[in-house]
From TrEMBL:
InterPro entries assigned to the protein according to its UniProt record, in alphabetical order: P-loop_NTPase
Signal sequence residues: 1-26
Species per Swiss-Prot/TrEMBL record: Salmo trutta (Brown trout)
Species lineage: Eukaryota, Metazoa, Chordata, Craniata, Vertebrata
CDD domains assigned to the protein according to its UniProt record, in alphabetical order: Ras_like_GTPase (cd00882)
Keyword Cell inner membrane belongs to the record: no
PANTHER family in alphabetical order: INTERFERON-INDUCED PROTEIN 44, INTERFERON-INDUCED PROTEIN 44-RELATED
Keyword terms of this UniProt record: Signal
GO biological process, one term: immune response
Protein name, entry field: Interferon-induced protein 44-like
Keyword Nucleotide-binding: no
Length: 306
């Protein structure tokens, strides 16, 4: 069955437009004809409805699992809260920052106890020094589905098979179906080499695990570029943001068309449609990638009676 979420990525258009801009940091093109070509026309309700209608492409899997990781302060928990807020129609807070507890975050579907088939996990951030932040081996354990709900991570000692929080035989639903690296646009240049290496090691481990799909969400774009802070739609024309995407691609080894910039809610007390559309495009790609991945997981064989 073809994927319900096969839309053409807007990144190639973003790149082609950006290449025409003068090489000035955060320069914004003034041509109205250029702006009219941008893939931005209040698509929020259309994309949101398609996401709400999503059904996993593998009947053995009730929910796809998206795992977010990245350096301290990148906005991983804020991103989960952002996603939930857009689905609920108001600002929410379901994920706490820098939590050492492994917790699955679900999006409630109108009634208590009913959820959309997309779940999220995040962990405390990666840090430069050893013994601080989440251990990269614990993230790899989570990718494999070995981490029990409620397990408390120890930065000094990763989870082992002997620990109570270890799942010896994980199900397909315990495993991660899409890995999302969250990178702060304004702090990327200051990230230590050990943090970057940990993120690359995690990416390689994900690739080795049957090719878990991966993408990057570039956060704090408003802090990185004043023009984007003024109007988030300027993200499509910002030379500086394009450069940050290319830098991120070089650091992590992720293609530019798998790097999506967003602006998390910070000071806002009401939803903003322009911000929501950016987030929904990123979520759409997460769902696309995860759904394609689970379709390749073999179906369970049910014994037939004689």
């Amino acid at each position: 069955m073809p994927s319900q979420f096969m839309w053409q990525s807007w990144h190639m258009l973003l790149i082609s437009v950006s290449r025409k801009l003068p090489a000035v940091s955060c320069h914004i093109a003034e041509s109205t004809s250029t702006c009219s070509l941008l893939p931005y026309d209040s698509q929020k309700e259309v994309i949101l409805q398609k996401l709400k209608d999503y059904v996993p492409g593998n009947p053995d899997i009730k929910s796809i699992r998206v795992f977010l990781h990245g350096p301290v302060g990148a906005g991983k928990s804020s991103l989960i809260n952002f996603i939930n807020s857009v689905f609920q129609g108001h600002i929410t807070s379901i994920a706490l920052a820098d939590s050492a507890i492994y917790q699955t975050h679900k999006i409630e579907k109108g009634k208590h106890g009913i959820y959309y088939p997309i779940v999220f996990n995040d962990v405390m951030g990666l840090e430069e020094s050893s013994g601080k932040g989440v251990h990269k081996d614990d993230i790899i354990n989570a990718l494999k589905g070995h981490v029990k709900e409620g397990h408390k991570f120890n930065p000094m000692s990763p989870l082992s098979e002997k620990d109570h929080g270890y799942i010896k035989i994980p199900s397909s639903e315990d495993r991660v179906h899409c890995l999302v690296s969250v990178m702060p646009a304004d702090k990327m240049a200051f990230l230590g080499k050990h943090v970057i290496q940990k993120m690359r090691d995690i990416r390689l481990a994900a690739f080795a695990l049957a090719g878990i799909p991966q993408m990057v969400v570039l956060t704090r774009v408003d802090e990185a570029c004043p023009s984007v802070r003024k109007d988030v739609k300027n993200i499509y024309l910002s030379k500086y943001i394009k450069e940050k995407m290319e830098q991120c691609s070089a650091k992590l080894g992720v293609p530019v068309n798998c790097i999506l910039p967003v602006k998390n809610y910070h000071e806002e007390i009401d939803l903003n449609e322009d911000m929501d559309v950016l987030l929904l495009r990123a979520l759409r790609q997460m769902v696309d990638f995860a759904d394609d991945f689970i379709k390749n997981i073999p179906l369970k064989i049910t014994p037939q009676g004689n």
